[in-house]
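Today's session is about reading a structure prediction critically. Students often jump straight to the picture, but the first step is always the sequence itself: look for stretches that repeat, for charged clusters, for runs of hydrophobic residues. Only then move on to the predicted structure, which in these notes is written as discrete structure tokens rather than atom positions. Here is the chain we will use throughout the hour.
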Amino acid sequence: MFTVIDMINHYLGYINVNLKLKNRIYTIIGFVGNFYMLYLAFRFFENGRWVRGLGFIAIFLIFLYFLIMNIFFYFTKKAPPFDISPKIEKLLGGKPREVSENEELRQRLHQHERGRRAIVPTTGIFEKNTILPATIKSTQREVYNINQLAEQMIQNNFAMADYEGLSDDEIITHLQDSNDSAVYAIGEGIPFPYFELREENGEANIYAGMNQMNLYRIGHVASVGLSNYFDAKKQYQLYLAQAVLIGGQRKFAGRSTLMTEESPYAAKIQMAYQKRDNNGTQTRRRSY
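Below is the predicted structure for this chain, in token form.
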């Protein structure tokens, strides 16, 4: 029985699912193994081996307590009524006061730094109801260009590959409380310093760079909403509202600790639209 449980636990370590779901599965497996231990205890009682039986009962009760704690942590949003974790942490020393104060200071400085570097997109600001989902496709050469540009952005402190200032413990907590399977070093995405859309040879190509003088082609618009770019353009005036760098190094939950993985950078885009008038001309843009 324990061999089967160990095999399940082993193979779960290779599946990249969010940490909260994985811990739920581990909790269910733990209940199965724990009640098997209770079964063994009763078998010892039947054979007159009372000491071993009582030992298994004691272990069963200890494991049952922690499994119930896991139910509160991973299946509900309620605080467990008899949680001894803070007492155990205090008994073992917990975090020194200096460490906690340094972490708070680091987070405040980090938030200040990110706020100072907040940048308005080069294309301006669009209303949310004028934004359409769009997809970008990139060739191998264009993916290489994206990764080259990502390195430049990081070297020039335009992108901060520091997991948004989160410690490993904070990343684990985030993964437990969300449906995310991983946390990326650059966060959810960083706008390219400069980007533009060019219609060339029947394709809507996207260029990005550190400035307008040094641009890389990073892909072409594959679709806007449910339509091809040029089909959508027959009805709407289209604008490249946003081009964002995503991907790169990430951390995800392994069997017992966080794992770090290098993945290629990619680009993500949003298009803004404005309906054409009956003559097929552009309607007047809204000013702010």
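Discussion point for the tutorial: The chain has two domains: 2-91, 121-275.
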